[in-house]
Amino acid sequence: MTAAGVVGVLVQLAVVVGGAPLLVGLMRQVRAVLEGRAGAGIGQPWRDLRKLLKKEAIRPEGTSWVFTSGPLVLFASTLVIAAVAPFVSTASPLDGVADLFAMVSLLLLGTVALTLAGLDTGTAFGGMGSSREVTIAALAEPTILLAGFALSARVGSSNLADIVAGTLAAPAQVLSPATLLAAVAFAVVVIAEAGRLPVDNPATHLELTMIHEAMILEYAGRDLAVVELASAMRLTVLLGLSVNLFVPWGVATSSAPLALLGATAVFALKVGLLGAVLATFEVFIAKWRLFRVPELLAGSFLFGLLAVSASFFLA
Amino acid sequence: MNGAAQSRREVGAAELAAGVGALLDDGYRLALVAAHEDPDAFRVVYLFTAGSPDRRVELVLRTDRDAPQVPTLAALSFPAGRFEREMRDLYGIVPLGHPLPRRLVRHQHWPVGWYAMRSDAGPAPEFGAVDEAYPFVTVQGPGVYEIPVGPIHAGLIEPGHFRFSVVGETILKLKARLWFTHKGIEKLAEERTAADALLLAERVSGDPSVGHALAYCLAVEDAYDWDVPAEAGLLRAVLLELERLYNHVADLGALCNDVGFGILNAHALRVRERLLRLNADVTGHRLLRGAVMPGGARVAQLPTSSQLAEIAAEVVEIVDLALGNSVVRDRFTGTAALRGDQVRQIGALGYVARASGVDIDARRDHPFHAATTQVTSVVRNEGDVLARFLVRAGEVRASVALLEILLRDARPGMVHGERPQLVPGVQVSGVGLVEGWRGTIAHRVEIAADGRLARLKIVDPSFMTWPALPVALTGTIVPDFPVANKSFNLSYAGNDL
Fold it and tell me: ipTM of this model?
């Protein structure tokens, strides 16, 4: 493990942790401007976090360590992805961990921790949110795997850095049917996993319609700050994976300081742009009826399956 | 002076049911039931109304001072059964043979035997022991669970408790428990002068201030046989439509917001703000308060038809965009459908009734000014969220069209009719019926010989329409509740006075 490699990991962590609330702020601001509102500015999520961190964490009576540890597991699992996935640099010393299956498992670990915490509160909303979240996760995770398969088939490795490096080496592959189909499947799943419209409405105050927000209703103060930060990081990580798996240009392949600096700027730009596009898309779409969400995810699963088939038969 | 055919007759307990049955068969609806405490007896007034031509019939039943009881009408009329429960909770008048003799207005922790509206009630007592469990019907079966929601909610909305019995996401049964906001408005109105109690009437519920103020004024004028100039009626009609406009616009946006289509809500709120500023120009108050008073109305300036046309065009655009979005249309269509026969049985009012094919509109049925009868009625038959959305959208257009007619003859200023003297020593009563933006508002006043209010009974349309919500929601999925609830948008404060 070289010192330069460690610097690369630290840069990635700093970018994801520090940038995640800014990404959320940017997306809210884009939405506000498009809706003709002034908006609170992109720094607002950080200001909210600062406020929440100063407040005590009130935990409901009767909850156990499951409730207490939920935010930490979510935060920690997302942090690992942020450290090892090839966001800024493919030359990570933790490269061996950056496996597609490991990433999907880590994402699921955070989801499960939060759903269990939602159940642990014993409230109707926690259970309702957890039930809905698991329904969606159960449908979304296979699609992520399939889409990843389609990408890994062509490089013969499920290592993310290898996939990214493979695409960098053969740029024409981005326009192959397999990659395009996988991109569509992946995009749908990212929207579902990140709890964005049309699957979930992150801006709602209506308890009965919530999915993600219903699970975390009982968190307050510092606990809530951790959940909010981890959720923002999760969004960043999902968008980061999307851009780097399909549009990897700009990723540093070495740990040279200048390369890292340039790659950081490019990564921030790409994710910011994708976030802005997603926010714009959200302005024009309403939330789907809950029972139609499985149709959407089944559709994306089909795209994933086609992508895998195409990567074998059309490659 | 409303030109309505009015009659009143005393009935005995034995002939009440027959009398009520005959009226209901004749097309009358029960608009209001008010109990009164006389020195020698409790007196219950049943007000029945029918439109085209405007008819109002009052049946008066006296009952014993010491053991007050009335025969229940619950088998004949659902709203009557609810009025009776309200009367029992507030006056201690027992409805004999009532099929659901549970508390309605006062929750179980209010002490037994304390009746807020009685003259000897005194100050509100401490909450006592619960005299019976809070009864919720438990739905049993494999996989059935309950979701309790409220009375405190995440948004800035009024308190109400909802108990969902659910399988998966499908609502099997919904029970709404309201009545967390009893303010004693009717009690506060007693002993006040007519001018004084106007302030209370205007604040029954925040959004229909003109509706309630006007219904109250009409009731007082009816009691006094007060001659109000026709110009005042015109101004009042203008104010009533302005109130309808800003509330309907807010609802159109809120319905879109509840299905996650925030951009239309942002624009609907912008249009609402324009209307509120227009209201401030017209009356000096954004919510149109202080413009209607017994005997007249006061308006600083009138909106121009170009202002209204601009606003109407913006609303049309918002509605078109909402209906053009396939997801929004899908969420609205078929959600929480209420059938017309259910509306008639429950006695629901306003846009909820009109969206289910029941055309009730006091502007046409009980006009206080002839011009309001020219309103275009907007009726749909589907009874779902989409129908309630479209009825609101249609009523915005109808309101603007009606305003065009009204503004031809209306002139700004203060118009007031001289109050006639009361015949000394006589207690008088009067009724006011107004199509507020939410539905028909009914007020009934009794004014004592000294000119002070002996009794003010207020019926907000929410009281009549609330029971329709759980009926409409049967079979709907839980995440669709907020948008369905918003499509009803009933008042908690107006329901619980």
Answer: 0.88
